[in-house]
Amino acid sequence: MRDQDWNIISILHRERNITKTADLVFMTQPTLTKRIQQIEEELGILLVLRNSKGVLFTPEGEYVAGKAEEILRQFNEITTHLATISGGRAGVLKIGVPNSYCQLVLPRLVKEYSKMHNVGFDIAAARSDEIVRMVENHTVDAGFVRGTFFTDLETIVISTDQVHVVSQDPLSLAELPGLPQIDFIKEPSIVKATEQWWNDFYTSPPLIFIRVNHAETCLAMIKEGLGYAILPDTRYIKGKKELFTIPLLHKDGTKFTRNTSFIYSREKMGTPMIKDFVDYIKKYGVNLHSS
């Protein structure tokens, strides 16, 4: 078996879903399915069974998944200890980031950090809730997340964005229920928070006219006058004076906001390379995000 196979088994056991696992290990679904079949042939067992809800691990599969967790944990301990012994500050940082962070902030962060540190980056793009689990399971060294999460990980809030209504033409909040809304895929936490905000002010659901995958596509639709959107990241509208925006408030008058945070495990701080990156984020993270 390849080293990556243990990671595939571990993630599949956690997610119980081929599609999500394929995304997290950067494979297509057919490629992942074929690799699982190859692992089963090598081991001479059936790892999983498919059903309408996802995948079900066989007793043999449960045993292998448990061993996969042990192997990954031991490998992490070995690499961490060796890095500590050598005092090495070079290597590859594994960082989990939301898709929007990849586009808006990460390129500058990588550029600035690489000027001072001899490291490479292995970037895993995923939803924030998935990134939390990846950091907890040591699949990545650290991560950036959006929204609020309950975790024992160390958390540094590096920005707070006010949520805005964005449109091509002026409108009022009272008009929103009757106007076409352009929706796009967001983090589950902001979806829940937005739904709560909407229900606090309106008795009817929003009139969803178009659903798209990304905020950039959403903005393109807005510029064509096809509808309005509720955007949780002000960097998308920064400097775009041609757009009409309304910053949102809760009923009690407080701002409707969404945090971006940096998360990491205390256990990783024994590795100089990771500690250096954490210290850098503590010192410069807010400035990098706001610029």
Report on this model:
With 291 residues, the chain is α/β, with parallel strands linked by helices. It is built from 10 helices and 12 strands. The strands form 4 sheets. The chain has a 5-stranded mixed beta sheet with strand order 4-3-5-12-6, with helices on both faces. Strand 1 and strand 2 (54-57) form a beta hairpin. Helix 1 packs across helix 2 and helix 2 (18-24) crosses helix 3. It is globular, with a radius of gyration of 22 Å.
State the end-to-end distance.
45 Å
* Structural shape: globular
Please tally the helical runs, counting DSSP H or I stretches of 4 or more residues.
Answer: 10
Task: Give start-end ranges of low-pLDDT stretches.
Answer: none
Radius of gyration: 22 Å
Strand order of the largest sheet: 4-3-5-12-6
The whole-number mean of residue pLDDT values reads 85
Largest sheet: 5 strands, mixed
H and E string: HHHEEHEHHEHEEEEHEHEEEH
- Tell me the number of strands: 12
User: What portion of the residues fall into strands of 2 or more residues?
Assistant: 15-25%
Share of helical residues? 40-55%
Structural class of the secondary structure composition?
alpha/beta
